Amino acid sequence: MERRGVVAKIYAIGVGPGDPELLTLKAERILRQAPVICAPSANPADSSYALSIVEGFIDRSRQQVIVQAFPMKTNRQELEPFWESSAREAVKMVREGKDVAFITIGDPFLYSTFLYLYRLVKEKYPDVPVEVIPGITSISAASIAAGVPLAAASERVAIIPAAFEEKELRHVLLDFDTVVLMKVNRVFDSVYSLLKELGLEKKAVFIRRVGSPEEEVVFDLEPLLGKKLDYLSLLIVKK
Ligand SMILES: C[S@@+](CC[C@H](N)C(=O)[O-])C[C@H]1O[C@@H](n2cnc3c(N)ncnc32)[C@H](O)[C@@H]1O
């Protein structure tokens, strides 16, 4: 989309949880047109999961695909240089008149790497337009894949990153009707023992890579104990 007289933009595109048919029409249209697609990856040598979802919409003979490294670190200071360089790269393209589509798994405004970039661009390059295209979250797709509705009537839902302190997690599990635990892979064993203590282990379902060919929905959680679990997995606890 290098159009005369029209200012180029950064688009943040939610590409949904894994199935290319779960993209919005708007996301697909922008992805087919944008001259530059930026895809996040924990390691640039690895393929990007978000990119694998939208590969069928991209024509590499006329669109440039940039895989940007965002290592899985929790220390913000260590991550800042990666966000800065990604923002600089995207802004440079926009200033050259090219739209940049930054793809993100699920929805860009839910625990997404894009949120850091969004803040940086807003702060450092306020003249650069950013448009966010919503996506279907992994939570919506997982609840449907598992056949577990998130909420009905007056039920209350909590969405939390699983690496919460045990005391906080216990409160959330007791207080809400439905609890969605994101990023559960590394703390699964301790979450399971808490669920067991609260008598909730049979009320939970583990969903991995929903929407993709590797999708798994697991109701019997015990066999997962001690296993190396996929980062792209979550737990839904429904009382
Ligand atoms: C950084 S967050 C990204 C969330 C994403 N923006 C969304 O809207 O779903 C990553 C976490 O989302 C969840 N997730 C993302 N994609 C998933 C998928 N296809 N299947 C299951 N869980 C997924 C996992 O809990 C993972 O640890």
CATH architecture of the largest domain: 3-Layer(aba) Sandwich
What Rg is obtained from the alpha carbons, in whole angstroms?
A: 19 Å
Write the CATH fold name of the largest domain.
Answer: Cobalt-precorrin-4 Transmethylase, domain 1
DSSP helix fraction: 25-40%
In terms of structural class, how would the helical and strand content be classed? Answer: alpha/beta
Strand order of the largest sheet: 3-2-4-1-5
CATH class of the largest domain: Alpha Beta
Number of separate helices: 7
Bound molecules: S-adenosylmethionine
The portion of residues forming beta strands comes to: 15-25%
Q: Helices and strands, in N-to-C order?
A: EHEHEHEHEHEHEHEEE
Q: How would you explain this protein's 3D organization?
A:
With 239 residues, the protein is an alpha/beta fold. Helix content is 31%, strand content 21%. It folds into two domains: 10-133, Cobalt-precorrin-4 Transmethylase, domain 1; 138-238, Methyltransferase, Cobalt-precorrin-4 Transmethylase, Domain 2. The strands form two sheets. Strands 3-2-4-1-5 form a five-stranded parallel β-sheet, sandwiched between helices. Strands 6-7-10-8-9 form a five-stranded mixed β-sheet, with helices on one face. 36% of the residues are buried. The protein binds S-adenosylmethionine. S-adenosylmethionine is lined by residues 17-18, 104-107, 110-112, 137-138, 142, 182-183, 207-211, 231-234. Residues 17-18, 104-107, 110-112, 137-138, 142, 182-183, 207-211, 231-234 line the site of S-adenosylmethionine.
